[in-house]
Design goal:
The complex is a heterodimer of chains A (115) and B (112). With 115 residues, chain A is mostly beta strands. Helix content of chain A is 0%, strand content 50%. Chain B has 112 residues and is mainly β. Classes of the chains: A mainly beta (115), B mainly beta (112).
């Protein structure tokens, strides 16, 4: 158990819909990262927050947005869903702002299926 | 743009064989991490290397960071079925960012 909690674990929805994925980081971790993993491939970096502020952005679509709340949990909002958005979405947390030698602790992921 | 390329993409071997997985980039990274991911779970950190030329050993696993800090390798000696999984290298942070970029992944299957 990494200490990172993601909900829901599975989500099936239709094209055009909107979903929200939730992540609770490990106790004490200020950084939250979101990654997308398609078809058992590598992880695509989406976005990172540190203590409520956006710190880094990857290839995140304009239809996607995220935020980190004062209690440090984070939400990833996916809207106008397309079939290609079907993937595993991982949240990870770390203690450090800079992950130079820090470890990322991953949740178990949220599997999104768009029909 | 994928900055970290791993090879091979798939590897299927018998128990007891040795193998090497490569992680290559044209970019310089301040550190390189290796993770292993099992089905239905998130990646778990195996090791972090930070110095060019550094070699770290974790039981039967040997990790090396290239001298120029652009590439890394993972060597497994006498592979066991328990080594089966998706191996991911991750480099970062990129200059001026907090991004940790993951490689394309190597899927390893070790048969008894």
């Amino acid at each position: 158990d990494s200490g990172v909690t993601q909900t829901p674990k599975h989500l099936i929805t239709a094209t055009g819909q909107r979903v929200t994925l939730r992540c609770s980081p490990r106790s004490g971790d200020l950084s939250v990262y979101w990654y997308q993993q398609s078809l058992d491939q590598g992880l695509q970096f989406l976005i990172q927050y540190y203590n409520g502020e956006e710190r880094a952005k990857g290839n995140i679509l304009e239809r996607f947005s995220a935020q980190q709340f004062p209690d440090l949990h984070s939400e990833l909002n996916l809207s106008s869903l397309e079939l290609g958005d079907s993937a595993l979405y991982f949240c990870a947390s770390s203690t450090r702002r800079i992950t130079n030698t820090g470890e990322l602790f991953f949740g178990e992921g949220s599997r999104l299926t768009v029909l | 743009t994928q900055l970290l390329e791993q090879s091979p993409q798939f590897l299927s071997i018998q128990e007891g064989e040795n193998l090497t997985v490569y992680c290559n980039s044209s970019s310089v990274f301040s550190s390189l991490q290796w993770y292993r991911q099992e089905p239905g779970e998130g990646p778990v950190l195996l090791v972090t290397v930070v110095t060019g030329g550094e070699v770290k050993k974790l039981k039967r696993l040997t990790f090396q960071f290239g001298d120029a800090r652009k590439d890394s390798s993972l060597h497994i000696t006498a592979a066991q079925p328990g080594d089966t999984g998706l191996y991911l290298c991750a480099g970062g942070p990129l200059r001026g960012t907090d991004k940790l970029i993951f490689g394309t992944g190597t899927r390893l299957q070790v048969f008894p």
